[in-house]
Design a protein that fits this description.
The chain is mostly helical and 83 residues long. It is 73% helix and 0% strand.
């Protein structure tokens, strides 16, 4: 069971990284980047949105993906699941 949870957490980490990288590219309506961004956003936005509401404002720089990635890798993978 731990192996499955480790895999799911790792997939979520990859999805956040993909979301961050795709945010650097312009997306046109109906394009490939737009479709991938929409798919990844459906899974990652609830966690990132909650993190944005909890964190103090940093201006135009969104640090919520960094905070979530650090939390998942340090707390969840290392301390809880021992991946």
């Amino acid at each position: 069971m731990t192996g499955i949870l480790c895999s799911l957490v790792q997939i979520f980490i990859y999805m956040i990284i993909v979301r961050v990288v795709l945010s650097w590219f312009p997306s046109t309506s109906g394009g490939v980047v737009s479709q991938i961004s929409f798919f990844v956003g459906r899974f990652t936005e609830p966690v990132l949105d909650w993190t944005r509401r909890v964190m103090p404002r940093t201006g135009a720089l969104d640090l919520s993906p960094l905070v979530v990635l650090l939390f998942l890798q340090i707390v969840v993978q290392r301390l809880i699941l021992n991946c």
